[in-house]
Amino acid sequence: MKPAPFEYCRPSTVDEALEALGSSESSRVLAGGQSLIPAMNFRLTDVSLLVDINRVEGLDAVTCDSGGVTVGAAATQTRVLEDDGAASVVPGLRAALRHVGHLQIRDRGTVCGSLAHADPAAELPAVAVATGAAIDVTGPAGERRIDAADFFHGPFWTALEDGDLITEVRFPAPPPRSVTIVDEICRRAGDFAVAGLVAVIEVDAGAVRSARLVGFGLGGVPTRLQAAEAAIGGWAADHPVVTLTEAVMADTTDAFDDIHAPNWYRGEAVAALTVRAALRALATEEEV
Ligand SMILES: Cc1cc2nc3c(=O)[nH]c(=O)nc-3n(C[C@H](O)[C@H](O)[C@H](O)COP(=O)(O)OP(=O)(O)OC[C@H]3O[C@@H](n4cnc5c(N)ncnc54)[C@H](O)[C@@H]3O)c2cc1C
After folding, report:
1. Which ligand 1 atom sits nearest the alpha carbon of residue 116?
2. Pocket test for ligand 1, best of 35, 77, 152 (most atoms within 8 A of CB)
3. For residue 287, is pLDDT > 70?
4. What DSSP line would sit under 64-98, residue for residue?
5. Reported confidence tier of residue 190, pLDDT bands at 50, 70, 90
6. Which residues line ligand 1 (CB under 6 A)?
7. What is the CA(129)–ligand 1 centre distance, in A?
8. From CA 137, how far away is CA 50, in angstroms rounded?
9. Beta-sheet pairing, 27-30 with 62-65
10. Mutational pocket test of ligand 1: of 105, 123, 198, the residue with most ligand atoms within 8 Å of the beta carbon
11. C-alpha–C-alpha distance, residues 288 and 286, integer Å
């Protein structure tokens, strides 16, 4: 199908972009277009004006320091994936982006666009929650910083209001002596995950000290596995897996149940991914 008629503009500054976004009731930011354009083609979304942010000055920057990585709204997923500095400071970014779609999609799709789109099965929102990212937004109400934990409200629903623009996202570096693992179950490489896990695991003397565990593809928003986070402290490779898997199952009782997989399958899949992540983190302890 083809989209309904729409207007298009390509501003050069953030102020021009905000003015354009405010000029029409159903204006939308166009970043990589990898989710928005298909939705327009299928007439799933009503857009009167596309505000293309790809040439807005300063929005395509990716900057790293020892404390974290900042990704501008127009920086593509490929740009971040290929940035060795970003991968060494926040390893979860490269680990997640390897699972996102295919090369052609990552070449156009942006990191911030993925956060704004808030697909429940997407990897980057879970990385944002697992790392405690901060999302900078500017719009009619001025500038504000939103914690990733407060940003995702439901499937394809975020804290963004009409006329808002994400300008950048800051991913903090994980704690020292931690290992970040992004793993998922999907039918074919490049597909959206049926269920997945972002794990930031701190290891010490052959045991897990603590972990931040965030599932995706389980519910409307990235899912903190809080029972599993409590159960994993002190876990070592020779410990039984049953307590850990039962904790994950308790965390996932409300997981999606749909044509892609029943609820119990998603719970068991993420339980297996959690055990696998813990074993991998412990096996790589000497390297961190
Ligand atoms: C075949 C295929 C497979 C895919 N597989 C995966 C996958 O495995 N994992 C995954 O995570 N994603 C996947 N994607 C989605 C892809 O990652 C998208 O690029 C991403 O979800 C949206 O980013 P974008 O830059 O293309 O945003 P766009 O499509 O341009 O925009 C998406 C939405 O976000 C809004 N938006 C974008 N940027 C901003 C901003 N800066 N401020 C405010 N609002 C903004 C837009 O207005 C729109 O509503 C896939 C896409 C396709 C087509």
Report:
1. 34
2. 35
3. no
4. EETTEEEEETT-BHHHHHT-HHHHHH-HHHHHHHT
5. confident
6. 28-36, 38, 73, 99-101, 105, 109-110, 112-114, 116-117, 119, 122-124, 160, 164-166, 192
7. 17
8. 18
9. unpaired
10. 105
11. 6
- For the segment 88-97, the average pLDDT, to the nearest whole number, is 98
Q: What is the average pLDDT across 12-23?
A: 97
Cα 222 to ligand 1 centre (Å): 16
> CB of 99 within 8 A of CB of 193?
yes
Q: Where exactly are the structural domains of the chain?
A: 7-49, 62-172, 178-287
Average pLDDT along the chain: 96
Is 62-172 CATH 2.170.150.40? no
Residue 288 has a pLDDT of 61
CA of 206 to the centre of ligand 1 (A): 39
* Amino acid 1: pLDDT: 75
For the segment 203-229, the average pLDDT, to the nearest whole number, is 97
Q: How far is the CA of 44 from the centre of ligand 1 (A)?
A: 15
Cβ count near 43 (within 10 Å): 11
| Amino acid code (one letter) for 56 | V
Mean pLDDT for the stretch of residues 15-30: 96
Model pTM? 0.97
CATH of domain 178-287: 3.30.390.50
Contact at 8 Å (CB) between 212 and 200?
yes
By alpha-carbon position, which residue is closest to atom 1 of ligand 1?
A: 101
CA 256 to centroid of ligand 1, rounded, Å: 21
